[in-house]
Structures are given as structure tokens and as C-alpha cells.
Amino acid sequence: MKHKQHLIPLLCAFTVLTAIEIVCHIFFSFTPKYEIAPLADGWEININGTKYEDQKIEQFYKLLSAPLERGDKLTFKTTLPDLGFLPFPAILWRSKYTTVECYVDDLLVYEYAVDLYDSVSFIGKSYNFITLPREYQGKELTLKLTVCEHKAATNYEVPLFGSNEDLKAKLVHDNIVVIATGVFMAVFGVTYLFMSLIFSAAIPNSKAQILESFLCMNLGAWLLSYYNLFSLFYNTPLETQIEFFTLYMIVPYFYLIQLSIQKITRKAMFYAIAIISCFIPIFQYILHYAFNIHLRTTRPFYYADAIFGLVVTIWFLNKNLKKHDISKSGMIQMNGISGFAITLFIHFLSYLGEIYNIRSLHVLNRTIICFGYLILVVSMLANYLVFITWNYAQRQEHDSLSHLAYADGLTNLPNRAKADKELEELKNETNDYCIISIDLNGLKLVNDKYGHPTGDKYIKDFAKVISTTFGENDFCARIGGDEFIAIVKNSSTKDIPSMIDRMISALNVMNALYSEYKRSVATGFAFLHEFEENNPHEVYLLADQRMYENKKLMHEQLGIHARL
Fold first, then answer.
1. Of 422, 441, 442, 455, whose CA–CA distance to 523 is shortest?
2. Residue where a domain terminates, one of 171, 206, 228
3. Are residues 62 and 122 in the same domain?
């Protein structure tokens, strides 16, 4: 049963991903206005002066006898097909770690990153939208590339030829699931961060949730920049640097989140591993920005660090599971982190497949990483749901215990303990207030003559009267057997004698309807303004003294002895 519970996030993530796929393909269908032609074959390829005729650009890697090096010159030539009228004829092509110069016949129509190459700056991957002359039919298209990195990528995609507007729409359509996932992760991360900060005082483990929020934003930026879709929202030559920067931050986030979630037994060992792993990306950034050793060159260090981190994560999680030394909240979060880490590892394997030109892994590459993202999100939402449920139960228990501690069992009015607390809080009151001491008349006689159940009914009937006499902002309590108290704040705006008369009138109505015994009360009240200092207990004692004077007078009028 426990294993089935662990499968719930996976099933939810799979369901959501399937729904996203279906919705995207239904509501984001794409039909080009003009023909789009993939320029897959018929290329003349020149590698450092060696010419190859009638080649497929996707099989460029087969022509290489050695890895590409910085400074290598590549030339791709083909004849543009006749697609009829195109309002803005263009080429869409993704370059990878090279400069790009595009010629139509001998006319230079586009260039990219040539200045960066001359300054030995980092040149990454980029989608190139190359606008062509309107009279393009039968002309020769030439792409001249200069390699900028050691062992630069050789898995080139097929250039697409068509209308500029159609090409942009096709790029969005073909990557709609990745775009939707990346944007969702960024928005979800920001939203989750605000929620975590708002409830940080009440949420257990809020540090982990805040870190997970930043991780989500980081992952959204990485996904979009990895597929060169970040430029759809913000065009920057630093897109590939953003890809590597966010990629190298993933492992440190994992260690920090684990420290917040799990109880680490071997802390010295874990801290040593975490510090070394977190220093690796810092070291890579230093090499890149201080010594111009580009981020892509040091990528193997990150992959080794990431794989080792995955092993450490699984080992510590398994150890805590055996000891049952992890909370339910931590278990949910670690399931999400571990599930995402595994999908990230599978994504890495599919990435290696792309490097070695195994094209069939291309779809898996995109699907598996989106699936991993959703596993992480589902686990975060599940953990938040657990928190809300736990917090609600805690609040209900607290309210129940507070009610038991401060409520009178017979009338459900506040009791003496609550009244004492209320009196203590009056010390901070700056406005005038009134304290009314109330005592039931004849309760002992009712108990003796009719029995305690009738006496209890007398008390409960009066509790209803006092509750309806005073307003919601006033305080009423039963502080003894037949003793009650009322506190009226801002009393300068209220007519206290009229309120007491209204209470007595309500008792007289009861007497007229149920005449088996006489219901009446003795009252006394005192105001803050009668004293030089704000001492609520002194105000209450004066009110109580006046109540007893009133009670004595009422007993004399009725011809009975006052109770001492």
C-alpha cells in the first residue's frame, strides 16, 4: 500500500502531461499560409577546404574524420527551391557554437556573432531567422560557419525555408509543450514563493518550500534556454550562458533542499559532499568569467557532480526510510526531488544520444524532462495540501482546547479564567469602558424548592438574556454560580442604564410567560473615568460593591435577608 502511495505523484504528473499535450495540439494547431520546405539534402559541404557533393545536412557528422576545433571553417551550399510567392522569404536554422554568415549568390544578407568570435567571447546556440531577398528563386544559398569551441556540436538540424511569419509560428507550435512547461514552472515558482513567504511563520519546513520555489524558477529558465526558446520572450546573446548558469545551479539546490527536509545523521560527511558539490559550479563560473574557459568546456565536471549527487540523494533517502526518520511532508518532497532527479538523469542519457546522433531519442529528451518537472510540481502541491490539512486540524484542536479552557460548561459563556484574561487586557485600553457586575436573585430558593435542574435552567435562561442584551463587541461571562460580568468598551457612546433596563425587561417577559418562580438580577456598574489610573480590577471591585448595595436594597424591599 505504501508503494502505491508513492506512485500517486507519478500518475498525476503523467495525467497532467498527457492533458497538456492534448490541449496544446487541439488549441494550438498550426497550418502555414505558405509552403514550408525543409532543406534536408542536396547540400555541397566544405570542411576546411575539403568538398563533399550532394550531402544531407543531418548527416554532416559522418563526413568528419576528427572532432571540430576552434577556427575550423565550414561552408554549406544549396540552391533555393521555388515555393512561389513568399511575402518575406526566410530561413530558420539553429546554429551551435559557430558564427554564421549567410549569402544569397554573393550578397551577404545575414551574419551572427562574428564580432564575438574576434573578441574570443563565448558563442552558444541560437535560432537564426535569416531574411532573404524577395527574388530568391533559383539563387544559391551559402552558409559560412566558423567553429568557436573545441569539439563543437555536429548534430545540425535541417534548415527550414518559407515565409518568416510561418517559420516563427512553426517554431512555437513544434515546441509548445516545452514553452508551456517552462513558463508554467517560472510562474508557479514565483507564486509558490509568495505563498511560502506569506505563511512562513505557520508552515513547518518553510525554508525547503522557499528553496523549491527558486528551484522551479531556475528550472523554467533552464528549460527555455536549453531549447533556445528563451529568446522568444527576451532576445539576448547570453541565452546559452543562461542555460549553463541555471543548469549548474540545480545540484546546489538539491543539496540545500535535502538539508531542509531530511534528518542527516552523518552530517560531517554530507556537509563535506554538499560543500564540494556546490563549489564545483562556482569554480566553473570563475574559469568562465576570469579565464575565458567557457562553460561548455567544463560541462563534464557538472555531469559527474550531478550523477554523484543523485547517488547520494537516493542513499540518504533510503537510509532515512529504513529508520523511519523522515516526516510525511519530507517524504512527499523527497519523492518529488528523487523522481525529478531520475528523469534528469534519463534526460542526460538522451542528451548523450543526441550528441552521438541517435535521432530517435529527440522526442524522449523533451517528453521526459517535462514529465520530471510535473513530478516535482505535483509533489510540492501535495506537500502544500498536507500542510493545509495539518494546519486546519491543528487550528480545530486549538480552538476546541481553547473553548474547553475558557468556556462555562453550563451556559457556554466565557468563564472566570476568560474574564480574568479580559480584565487584564483592559489595562491597554485607552478609551472609557464600563464593567457591570450582575448577580441572580433567588437562585438558592429555586434550587431548594424546585431542584437543581430548574436552577440550572434559570441560569441558562439568563445567559440567553445577557447574550442578547449586549452587543458583539461587548464581553459577557459567568464567573460563579449565580455571578455574571459584562464589559462594555467605548462606553461613552452607549447608554448603560438603558441596556440594564432592557435586560430586566426581558426577564420580566419570561416571568409573565413562565410564572413558577421569580427571575430578577441585582446589578452594579463602574466606569474607567471614575479612577485616576487604569486599573480594571479596581473598576470591577467598585461595580461589584455597587451590585451588592443594589442587591441589599432589593432584598430589603422583598423582605428577605441578604446573602453574605
1. 441
2. 171
3. yes
Instruction: Establish if 313 belongs to a structural domain.
Output: yes
- CATH code (residue 94): 2.60.120.260
Half-sphere exposure of 93 (CA within 13 A, CB side): 31
Q: Do residues 103 and 192 both lie within one domain?
A: no
Same domain, 148 and 218: no
By CB atoms closer than 10 A (0-12, 13-18, 19+), residue 169 is middle
- Cell (9 digits) for 256: 540545500
User: 523 is in which domain, residue-wise?
Assistant: 416-558
**CA-CA-CA-CA torsion sign (250, 255, 259, 264):** positive
List the grid coordinates of 546: 455597587
Q: Residue 127's beta-bridge partner residues?
A: 94
233 plus 282 within the same structural domain: yes
Report the SS3 class of residue 474: coil
- The DSSP letter of residue 530 is G
Q: What pLDDT is recorded for position 412?
A: 85
Average pLDDT over residues 529-540: 90
Q: Which residues pair with 44 in a beta bridge?
A: 77
State whether residue 560 is helix, strand or coil.
Answer: coil
Residue 5 has pLDDT above 60, yes or no: no
Question: H/E element holding 349?
Answer: helix 328-355
For residues 435-457, average pLDDT:
90
> Which one, of 381, 306, 302, 390, lies nearest residue 344 by Cα?
306
pLDDT at 141: 94
Nearest to 330 by CA among 263, 250, 268, 376: 263
* pLDDT tens column, 261-293: 666 666 677 777 778 878 888 888 888 888 778
Is the pLDDT confidence value at 132 over 90?
yes
Output the DSSP codes for 52-97.
Answer: EEEE-GGGGGGG-SS---TT-EEEEEEEPP--S--SSEEEEEEEES
Single-letter amino acid code for the residue at 155: N
Task: Reply yes or no on whether the pLDDT at 245 is more than 80.
Answer: yes
H or E segment and range at residue 280:
helix 267-291
| Pair 253, 211: CB distance under 8 Å | yes
Q: Are residues 363 and 270 both part of a single domain?
A: yes
Give the pLDDT score at 523.
93
Are residues 214 and 374 in contact, defined by beta-carbon separation less than 8 angstroms? no
